[in-house]
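[Meeting: bench + compute handoff]

Bench side (C.D.) handed over the final construct sequence. Compute side (W.E.) agreed to return the predicted structure before the next meeting so the bench team could plan truncations. Sequence as handed over:
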Amino acid sequence: MPAVSRPSLRRMACRAAWVLACFLIVALGAGVAFAQDVRSSQVLESFPVHGQAVLEKERQAYELSLSACSGGTCPFEVRLLSSAEHARGAFATGRAVVSKRDSAALDWPAFAAPARPLHVPKPGAAPFLANTTGPRVWSTGEEENTVTAAASAVPLEPGNPAGASALLVTQMAGFDHPKRRHTLYVASRGALKRAWSRSEPQGPYVSQVMAAPGDAPVYLSMFVSRDDDVPDKVSAYQLAWDARRQVFSERPSAPTVLAVVAGSYPTVRAARAARAASACFAGYGAVDTWPGKGLVPHRYALITLAAEPTQATAERERLIQCQAGIQARQYPLSRLTPRSSPTP
């Protein structure tokens, strides 16, 4: 081996020290950026992709988060996370080494951070919906800059506790006339896929996605008329999972949705007057039941909707306690309003 002079050794040592210093600067910078990203991303909700722990090398979970603000907007993001941890609750406790497999920004970003949880609305507070307790809602911004987001898990195979789930995300934006957008995401081949989406059209529409235990989700669209002589309208669509195409398809029939009838009246105006005269009917819609096959004595009825029989029974009992002498009834919505207008 040829001898190496002392100046050459010094130059080599300096060069090695310079390379190491550059590497440390880059690594530290990347670490700081990663730490800042972790701190600036607010995790709002997380749900396992599978309902029960599965014996797989990799477990997956959905996460709804609010990312760091940039340029005046703060993107809401859905993430698909994976972990090698088998223990139950690994995603919630943070004990597992979690990696991000995929992500998707929601259509409506926030304009301020952080997001704050809203109080759960009282049952019956939403139009047309009885005893409905939805997922936690996260709100950002003020007045015209208000944007909210909520998430929940929806089973792809109702009744299978170990089956996979989709992630339902509902956003609402606007101040005077807020609108909602519902989206279902699924984990498909290690990536996130938008499997279904609906937005409320312009006008006095209110929508909701309900998922009763053991049943397929249902998309409800309610037209809340502002004219005393024009009835409200309800459309219900069952969201059926297509495993081959990895999407949800809308079927214009939702037999699981029940209508609780508080009373029927000869005209729309009479139905609205009865609703205005009693706080017991707050949130009820005045719908045209023709041709309802004689289920109610008069053509126009005050109704509210329930996702399952227990909710309908609870609402009937509430009505009976709220107003003496009331004869509340319940029917499948598809029988009561068979000619509801198609969803826009």
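W.E. noted at the follow-up: DSSP finds five helices and 18 strands in the chain. C.D. will use this when planning the next construct.
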